[in-house]
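re: ur question from earlier - yeah i can do the single chain one, its not a big deal. heres the input i used so u can compare w yours
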Amino acid sequence: MTKLMLRATFGLTALAVAAPAFAQDISFWSWRQEDRAVYEDIIAAFEEQHPDINVNFEAFEAQNYNTILSTALAGDSGPDVMMVRAHGAFETVAAGGYLMPLTEETVPGLDTLPDAALAAETLSSDGQIYAVPFASQTMLVIYNKDIFDQLGLEEPSTWEDLMAVSQAIEDAGMFPFANGTATAWQNETIVSALGSSIIGKDFYNDLVAGETDFTDPRFVEALVAVQEASQYFPDGFVGLDYASSQQLFTSGMAGMFAGGSFEIANFMGQNPDLNLGVFPAPVAEEGDEHLVGLFFDGGYAGNADTEHPEAVQTFLSFLTTPEFGNMFANELGNISPIPGVEFERPLLQEVAQLNENSIPYIMLVHFRYEEPSGSVLLQAEVQRMLAGETTPEAAAQAVTEGIATYYEPFQD
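and the output i got, formated as tokens:
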């Protein structure tokens, strides 16, 4: 008999008596304080199926989470289950030996997840998976449909189309883009959101094969395009930070925002009346392939020293199910990598379809494992480029030289 059935039949007093005496308590840490209510619903659904396991959720401030988690794990006081970052940021925790290795046998359902998602939570030194991936993020352009409809505009396909749409919005007295560049990480996002189709799969494949570097004309062309688009950013955009850029868009003063799919939930939270659309990075020439940038945004890991390994593995297995994926996607507004998820929001379904034609978010996926990271280099150089302090060619050269200090294919 489930907890809800007991509650309905015998009342809360009987429920306390009927709860299994051997129930195991496991702790679950997150950096998503704003998602507490949803995670409590998720945990309730899990406990409904597993009345012998109690999951205690605790969330911390995101900026300090990594330090709090690492300190707790090193001091043997860490949680049983924890949210961890992906790719290079994930390696810091995984390489310390603090995480439980996961297999299809210990966590049923793990094998149903996409290889690229699992790779984001795989330790490079041993090839072992240590976390269940929870979301993908897509770099694209989000736009205000009401502004487009008001001006009779259609989603741009080519770069020429994008420039024409931008000019039309500016002529109407609004900002074409809300983006600013004062917050460094936004510069990397802007390059992927606007430049992925110009960068192209061929360049990406050649890059990871060690056959070219970032001075390649295909990558430089993408930087040139971003520089061209910046003429349609707000006045004083070099001093405009991330929060102010968001507010500019959600206030209806700008037509477009070059960013990640994670912005959709943020924007709707700030202004539920927004009528949003999305489109991939425009192509240089009609007929080229439209692409988005894609990365996986973290995972759920188990503590290698937990006193309740079977309970932890049971909970992690639940986090691979379509039941969880549907709750995660539709209540948190994110794209779950779990097969079979049904998106209630058409916009999320559209993003999921765009993901079928993508290239990885290059610096995060491949060049954020050593210092100086590709992300830090690109963010700084694009920031300087859009401020008029360097050129696309010089920016690409600086990024390549920085990565070449540790990456052998760039040293030839």
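The first strand starts at residue 24 and ends at 30. not sure if urs matches, ping me
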